[in-house]
Amino acid sequence: MIKYLFTIFLFSSFCAIGQTNSKTDSTESAITNIEMEEKVGELLDRYIKLNKKRKGILGWRLQIHSDTDREKAKKIRISFMLKFPEIPAYLDHKEPYFKVTVGDFYTRLEALKVQNEIRRRYTSYIVPSNINITED
User: Fold this and answer.
1) What pairs with residue 94 in β-bridges?
2) pLDDT averaged per 10 residues in sequence order, the chain, 136 residues
3) Distances 85 to 78, 110, 127 between C-alpha atoms, Å
4) Are the CB atoms for 60 and 108 separated by under 8 Å?
5) How far, in whole angstroms, is CA 80 from its chain's centroid?
6) Domains in the chain, start-ordered, CATH in brackets?
């Protein structure tokens, strides 16, 4: 019985020692070095430059109004901003329509969640759009 307990104690201490790492602390951040071909790096740089020129990325917005009357579109945008101040609202003009779109969503699912929230007050459609990048 004593041999059995001694064996368990001996192996459990080795397991405990194996779990610690004296060289790095778990709160320290690790540095990752990514190796890639030169062409891949050039494509990545090109993609970054294109996004900076666009002033945003392709994402989704909710279109809540489309009409030829500019004043009506302005009123709807203002009323939306008063009811939902946390959601940005935009007024765009694409000949001959004035469109009110809301939100800056990276995924269609995010847009669908907000669409369900505003459903009682606004009829909306999920549309692809160039969205503003927000830092969370």
Assistant:
1) 97
2) 63 56 60 86 86 80 96 96 96 95 96 95 94 71
3) 10, 17, 21
4) yes
5) 23
6) 56-131 (3.30.70.1070)
